[in-house]
Amino acid sequence: MVHLITAVIKPHRLEDTKESLRKAEILGLTVSEVQGFGRQGGKTEVFRGSEYKIEFVPKVKLEVLVNSEDVERVIDLIVESARTGKIGDGKVWSAPVDHLLRVRTGESGIDAL
Amino acid sequence: MDRLKLLTKRLREQDFRKQFAILFGGKMLGIATLLGLVKVGSTLLGGAASAAGLSSLQAATKAADIINPINTLWVLVTAFLVFFMQAGFMALEAGFARSRETVNVLLECVFDTCLCGLLYWAFGFAFQFGVGNWFIGHQYFFLQGAPLTYGSSGVAFLAFFLFQFAFADTASTVTSGAMVGRTGFKGDIMYSVMVSGFLYPIFGHWVWGPGGWLGGKIPHWMSNITGGVAFHDFAGSTVVHTVGGVIALMGAIVLGPRLGRKFKRDGGGPLPPHDLTIGALGAVILWFGWYGFNPGSTLSAMDFAGMGRVAANTTLAACAAGMVAVLVVYPRSKKWDLAMSCNGFLAGLVAITCPCYWVSPTGSVVIGAVAGVIVVFGVDLLEHLRIDDPIGAVPVHMICGIWGTLSLGLFASGSYGLPTPTGADTSATLKGVLYGGNWDIMKAQVIGSLACIILVGGAAFVIFKLIDMTGQLRVEPDGELQGLDLFEHGSAAYHMEFGQGMTYTTPAGGFPGGTLIGAVKKEEPVGGS
Fold first, then answer.
1. Which residues of B touch A15 (CB under 8 A)?
2. Considering Cα of B260, then B261, then B264, then B265, what sign does the dihedral take?
3. With contacts defined as CB-CB under 8 Å, which chain A residues touch B497?
4. Does this complex have an ipTM over 0.90?
5. Which of B392, B391, B352 is nearest to B375 (CA)?
6. Which residue of B21, B104, B154, B340 pairs with B68 in a disulfide if CB–CB is 3.0 to 4.6 A?
7. What is the pLDDT of residues B439-495, one digit of tens each?
8. Domains of chain B by range and CATH?
9. Which CATH number covers residue A29?
10. Could you give the CA distance from residue B349 to residue B294 in angstroms, rounded to a whole number?
11. Containing domain of residue A67, as a range?
């Protein structure tokens, strides 16, 4: 079985998170720049003297496909390396994946990881 | 008799009288204009014809009436070009930095320019170009007591001031390049005051000011070493670039690297630039601005051969350096490196700035080509020493500034002396070692470079340490990670706009309901579990 782990974290924690996953022999991940809000709310910026509110805070979203046995270990790793202890550290969650195929070879399931 | 009667009869009619008056008046006006033109024309012609008969004093006055305005015009035009280099620095530094510190880099350049202008008006110019002693000038504070023209330059005093302000501004902006990404804005203001108010004007006085000890009245010990040859720096390889570069180096050393910056020998590399388009454009704008920096330093449009030579030499050195730098790094990566090419031609421009008046075009190509090699190894050296210089200010401005200054001792062609307000003065020419001269010029250049590195560098190091002690030099780690734009300026350079994502508000906390995307109702839609 394969699981998809998704994490939304602070952008400046990406480098450390990536390194710790690489050390744990996770062979690939997908990153995207996203914006959103949670309890942190938006943030206030200023332009020519007036304050305005940016409703969505920039975050980084990681998507990692892992062997289901590794889910907890990888989630722990991400939480550990992405945590700053301050508001806005983000979330991590996982979900089972029905089908996984490697495009080049047609391998499926865990073989395709 | 009939006609006379007819005339008297007609003159009694009102309509006829009116028509007659118009015709007659018009004719008289035309004749008067013609006579006037003839009179004015004869005065002009007569004046021109008799000019040769004026006394020599009057002739000199007439000449100055034409020469001084033209020289002033040249100085002003080039001052505007030098000022435009600020746009180049802004674009280059912003492009080579990360997107999170763009606003910071831009505001530093803008604020430094404003600050430098006011400081230079208040006392910077007085320190640099006022009459004083061997160390510092003290005349023209707040531009008081200014004569019509500066010294014997024949250039309008305030035009000269503007030109020199643009130079001072350049020196202070060079410094900020090596300190991008981690310097607090208050710290930036503090060191900018020191650079553009004191360090640059005082060193500038030594070389370019009246009676300065390096370029003017040199002391006996120096005269004994150099055989009486003074330190020469035509447009500022040392005065502007090595000064700016060595201060930048001290700043980068005291600050330390940006958080997360790993050096090559620790398995890392430079942090990537965020916008090479704007960076490369800025570099070329700097090249363009250099056409004010170097050719304008003749301060005289009458030395037209000198102006042309300087402009051509400037171009050739940049071309050689830009190409050589690319070719030097190509074998390493098998890639054609845009950013190194930009650093390369800037290095060539910095190097040719000192010798541009005294060398030949061929000499310029060699000087530029050597700069193109030096800059690559300069970048390597800083990487090896674990000094974080995001823009490359130290290799380009300090190291190639030193090379350019020394190159004069080798490449001075022996054909050129100094520009004067009325033309080139070749009574005392400079001849370098490669053209059969002796080592005197080289000795003077070494003394000047060492004075800059040791004295300016030492003073800058102490100043940065003192500012660091106030705790204002470097921002706190949180601010640096978040990015200086948001932390120091509360504003990002680039916004991803979702149309409804940005609203102007004054109260803090909570979202005005109407601005949310309709489907989002939950408390925690981001990763809501």
1. 260
2. negative
3. none
4. no
5. B392
6. B154
7. 999 999 999 999 999 999 999 999 999 999 999 999 999 899 888 998 999 888 887
8. 73-478 (1.10.3430.10)
9. 3.30.70.120
10. 9
11. 2-112
